[in-house]
Amino acid sequence: GTSPKGVEVEDESSDPTPVEEPSTECETCTETVIPQNPAIALLKDGIFNDENQDGFGNVGETISYTFTVTNTGNVTLNNIMVTDPLVTVSGGPISLAPGASDNTTFTATYVLTQDDIDAGYVVNTALAKGTSPKGVEVEDESSDPTPVEEPSTECETCTE
Predict the structure, then answer these.
(1) Bridge partner residues of 67 (DSSP)
(2) What is the 3-state secondary structure (H, E, C) of the chain?
(3) Positive or negative, the Cα torsion across 40, 156, 149, 105?
């Protein structure tokens, strides 16, 4: 500004309420903390492949699994991977912006055994993990977007 006598004056701002541990070395800079909420959701769906088209499950036929990963938080998630104790999951790692979903990157195939056919079902869950820009790890156990009407187990979120 200019004083009444025409002298120019200036001052650099300082923060009257500085954060305890600033992210920069500028102690007088104004730093406003923005709350972050990293979060992830995983859907796992299985489709029985009747390769010989006889209408029944046979040893060696397969189940194709698809995984839909959604960033349900407010920060970009990186290094997103899906793991499953039953199968080897192909694809990834990926990054997702807030609100974004991916249903094509992660896939898996399971080969039916006689025990599966005798039981009449295959049940299990998968896990999605990702990392926020500040290194916070988030994870979610899968839910089934197309659950059977009468589940054969008490696990209502398992893929059957």
Answers:
(1) 44
(2) CECCCCCECCCCCCCCCCCCCCCCCCCCCCCCCCCCCCCEEEEEEEEEECCCCCCCCCCCCEEEEEEEEEECCCCCEEEEEEECCCCCCECCCEEECCCCEECCCCEEEEECCHHHHHHCCCCECCEEEEECCCCCEEEEECECCCCCCCCCCCCCCCEC
(3) positive
- CA neighbours closer than 13 Å in the CB half-sphere of residue 35: 2
What is d(CA 1, CA 37) in angstroms, rounded to the nearest whole number?
A: 42
- Tens of pLDDT, residues 18-50: 666 666 677 777 778 899 999 999 999 999 999
Q: Model's pTM, two decimal places?
A: 0.78
